[in-house]
Amino acid sequence: MSDTPNTTEHRYDALHLITDEVLARYANTPDPRLRELMLSLIKHIHSFAKEVKLTSEEWAFAMNFLEQTGQWCSPGRNEFMIFSDALGLSMLTVTQDYPRSQHATEPTLVGPFLLENAPEFAMGEDISAGAAGTPMYAQGQILDMHGQPVAHAVIDVWHSDDRGLYDVQDGIEEKGPWARAQLTTGADGRYSFWSVLPVDYPVPQDGTAIQMLQATTGRSWRPAHLHFRIQAPGQRPLITHIFDRNSKNLDSDAVFGVRPSLIADFKPQTPGQAPDGKRMDRDFFTLDYNFIMTDALA
């Protein structure tokens, strides 16, 4: 008979021994940053399970819930990101990872509906592509921290229609993208486009994130906003929203994304000449907003 103790037999008999064994195994992760992340994650998730005395039934429910969440993911919709947003993790990460110089435009979360390679439009064109809603003309300038115009800034913009839907929720494969565009600034750093006025809307009602919100906070609405992602040479990429001051959900955003500096006036206009000279025969809205970017090394 061997004198070697059967360590496998008792290695998992105590909670702390299980955690110690897992940590020891991941301690050899070659990449230092990945090792730091994994060891901290294991410690926290094991502590959580011990603190709440997680049951086998609850663990099984969670694993099934994660599987269902993955099934709701597709190009243009990341259900896991909606969870991150709704739990405040997205905004926490944005806030601690994006040091903002004074007077620079504040970032906020990206949201689940960003698409790469959006259709390219010239400045001043209508990007709505048939989206339903009241016409809106948006314009402004992209500036650096020194007040100088940023040339060659690539601006991605996307938003909802007057139903509170995005193109990725409305058969984009058959209908194509709408209320979504990529614009590039000239030497003056100015941008402009026509589209439709965004409205308040709830997070997607057909996935798993809404189930979690309905069972907990009961809050699922987002205030009306435009999404912007701005990238330019020598500048730190900026992902942000511009919120409509008249939204009734500014103080209860389901994903904690509202920052006071990002609230702006979408001004109602009567029929007549628009800022770009276009004659309008119906009511419309205008938005004027300048973005101030942060130096890449700031």
Name some characteristics of this structure:
2 domains; Protocatechuate 3,4-Dioxygenase, subunit A; 14 strands; 298 residues; five-stranded mixed beta sheet; single chain; alpha+beta; 8 helices
| Rg of Cα set | 24 Å
**Ranges with pLDDT <50 over ≥5 residues?**
none
Q: What is the strand content?
A: 15-25%
Integer tally of domains: 2
Task: Please identify the top-level CATH class of the largest domain.
Answer: Mainly Beta
Helix content: 25-40%
Stated plainly, the CATH topology of the largest domain is called Protocatechuate 3,4-Dioxygenase, subunit A
Write the CATH architecture name of the largest domain: Sandwich
Protein model, in words:
With 298 residues, the protein is an alpha+beta fold. Helix content is 27%, strand content 20%. Strands 1, 4, 10, 13 and 14 form a five-stranded mixed sheet that branches. It has a five-stranded mixed sheet with strand order 3-2-7-8-9, with no helix packed on it. The termini are far apart.
List the helices and strands and how they pair.
Elements (H helix, E strand, L loop, with lengths): L6 H4 L4 H12 L5 H21 L3 H16 L7 H8 L2 H9 L37 E9 L10 E6 L12 H4 L4 E5 L5 E7 L4 E2 L6 H7 L5 E2 L2 E7 L6 E7 L18 E2 L2 E3 L2 E2 L5 E2 L3 E5 L2 E2 L6
Parallel strand pairs: 1-13, 1-14, 8-9
Antiparallel strand pairs: 1-4, 2-3, 2-7, 5-6, 7-8, 10-13, 11-12
